[in-house]
Each structure stands twice: as C-alpha cells, then as structure tokens.
C-alpha cells in the first residue's frame, strides 16, 4: 500500500514549533498552523501562516496563548489552507501552568475523530508550543477529555512524523452498527488513520469497538475484548482468524448480527469482496460461528 506524509518534514516542524517569536517593526510574528487542502499525493496535511501581534512581548504567556487560539479558530485567509475545526468551535477557557497549556473548547470539538482529530490537535499543539513556557497542550471539549484520543497530553514531538514510512494515507470506510430504533444494521461513514504497524483490518476493528461517532441512535455490537489472531486479504477475500476464546454475544441472533456488522464493514474496504471467518485457523460456515467465549448480550446504553 502506498504511504504518504501527513505532516511537514520533522526537522522543519520542530524548528518552527520550538522557535521563539520573530520581532518585526509592527510587533511580533507567530505561526498559526492550519490543515492544508490536499493538492497532490504526499502533500503536507498541516501548513502554517504568519501573523503579527502588537506588543506581544508585554503580554503574559496565558494571554498570548488565548489570542493565538482565538485567531486559529478563525478561517484562514490564505489559499491552500483550511480550518481543521468544526464550524462554531470557540474557545471557552485557557490556562497555562507548569509548562502545560490547558485549552477548553466548545462542544463542537468533540465531533472530531480519527485523522481529523489528529490534524486539529496537531494545529493547536504546534501553534501553542512555539510560546516560551508551553511544552505540552491538553485539549478538552466542554470540559471533558475525548476518550478515544490515544493521549491527552500533546507535545510537538507527538505530531512529528519523520518519513513516509511513519503513516499511511487515511481510508474511508462504512462501519455498521446496530440502530436501536429499528433493530437493524445501519452504516456510518468514517475516515480512519493508519499508523506504522497497523493494518486496514485492525484499524477498522478498533473503530468498530470504539463505536459510532456522535449520538445517532447507533451502538456497537462487538463486545469489549473482541480481537482477531490474524487477517489477510487475498484475491478479493478477507480472511479473519478468531481465537477460540474471543468473546461474542451470548444470544445466537445477536452473535450473527455482530459478525454481519463486521463482515459488512470489512467489505467497505477497497479490494474486499467477500469475508471468510475462521476459528483457530479452521473455516466455519458464514454467520454460524460457535458461541466461543460467551458474553452477556449487549444492552442499550
């Protein structure tokens, strides 16, 4: 699979993110980091523009940080740049203590996930860590941490990917969840980011376990602890090998529905036409998986 570079070259980003502000005749110049419109394969996903703040040296770090975030939440005025934040996102509070900036944004920020959240986090982190006294950034939405973020404390180093081998291009998938109103499966489109050592199948299963984005009457069917031993895609068929101890819903109907949600989701991957489940390396009839390690039937949250 082709790999692309999501972020700017590591050295260039490190120098710009950690550099002190540049003084000009009109004040001090700072970098604001935005998402970039993809103009070609392998292009940067994050780029910056310079802005000037008058009398920046006379302001404390917290006030400066607040001004930079407020400016960052506005739509960029340069061609090729776009805001990584959902419409209506605003700054609620910001504080700086112990080298850490804590940024609380409005509830719209919680709508982000996957690569979109990674890019938005990156833009905030690189913008703020250029200030002396800020080495790390914590971002919340309406006072709450985003539970599906891998780490809550972000540093400039976390956003730097040094080569094309560090990240794969994002993939668009359709994930199938249970519609609690109809009792049937319903698809939700998501964009997933792939990282070094991660396969498309493992990224998709992780996303199914995280559950749907937003509160849209959907809930996941795969139980906590669900995992696969291995997977491969060969000539249009995705082979998924489960461990005999893999937990599945106790009820046979719910078990079949859970595996159907996985199969349908897997078929949304490019190049996958069929899905074949195996248990400890042995093939099983489609939709008739044995009970394996039984779990309680999922209940509506």
Task: Tell me roughly what share of residues is in helical segments.
Answer: 10-25%
H/E order of the elements?
HEEEHEEEHEEEEHEEEEHEEE
Strand tally is 17
List low-pLDDT spans. Answer: 1-21, 160-168, 293-301
- Strand content is 25-35%
Biggest beta-sheet profile = 4 strands, antiparallel
Structure write-up:
This protein is elongated. The protein has about 300 residues and is an alpha+beta fold. Strands 1, 2, 3 and 4 form a four-stranded antiparallel β-sheet that branches. It has a four-stranded mixed β-sheet with strand order 5-6-7-8, with helices on one face. The protein starts with 9 loop residues before the first helix and ends in a 6-residue tail after the last strand. The chain has helices at about 10-20, 60-70, 115-130, 200-210, 250-265, and strands spanning about 20-25, 25-35, 45-55, 80, 90-95, 100-105, 135-140, 155, 170-180, 185-190, 220, 230-235, 235-240, 245-250, 275-280, 280-285, 295. About 30% of the residues are buried.
List the helices and strands and how they pair.
Blueprint: H1 10-18, E1 22-24, E2 27-36, E3 46-53, H2 61-72, E4 81-82, E5 91-97, E6 100-105, H3 114-128, E7 136-141, E8 153-154, E9 171-179, E10 184-192, H4 200-210, E11 218-219, E12 228-234, E13 237-242, E14 247-249, H5 252-266, E15 274-279, E16 282-283, E17 293-295
Parallel strand pairs: 6-7, 13-15, 14-17
Antiparallel strand pairs: 1-2, 2-3, 2-4, 5-6, 7-8, 9-10, 9-11, 12-13, 15-16
Helix pairs in contact: 2-3
């Amino acid at each position: 699979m082709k790999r692309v570079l999501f972020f700017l070259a590591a050295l260039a980003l490190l120098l710009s993110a950690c550099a002190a502000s540049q003084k000009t005749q009109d004040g001090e110049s700072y970098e604001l980091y935005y998402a970039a419109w993809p103009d070609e394969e392998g292009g940067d996903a994050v780029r910056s523009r310079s802005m000037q703040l008058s009398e920046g040296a006379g302001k404390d770090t917290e006030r400066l940080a607040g001004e930079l975030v407020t400016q960052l939440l506005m739509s960029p005025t340069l061609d090729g740049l776009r805001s990584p934040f959902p419409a209506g996102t605003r700054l609620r509070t910001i504080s700086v203590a112990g080298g850490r900036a804590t940024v609380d944004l409005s509830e719209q920020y919680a709508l982000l996930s996957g690569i979109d959240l990674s890019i938005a986090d990156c833009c905030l982190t690189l913008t703020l860590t250029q200030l002396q006294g800020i080495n790390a950034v914590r971002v919340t939405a309406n006072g709450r941490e985003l539970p599906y973020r891998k780490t809550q404390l972000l540093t400039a180093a976390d956003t730097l990917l040094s080569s094309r081998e560090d990240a794969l291009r994002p993939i668009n998938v359709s994930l199938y969840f249970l519609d609690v109103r109809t009792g049937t499966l319903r698809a939700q489109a998501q964009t997933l980011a792939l990282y070094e050592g991660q396969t498309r199948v493992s990224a998709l299963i992780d996303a199914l376990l995280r559950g749907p984005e937003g509160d849209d009457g959907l809930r996941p069917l795969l139980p906590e602890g669900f995992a696969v031993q291995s997977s491969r895609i060969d000539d249009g068929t995705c082979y998924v090998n489960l461990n005999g101890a893999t937990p599945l819903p106790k009820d046979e109907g719910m078990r079949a529905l859970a595996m159907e949600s996985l199969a349908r989701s897997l078929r949304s991957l490019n190049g996958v036409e069929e899905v074949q489940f195996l248990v400890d390396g042995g093939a099983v009839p489609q939709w008739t998986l044995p009970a394996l390690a039984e779990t309680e039937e999922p209940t509506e949250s």
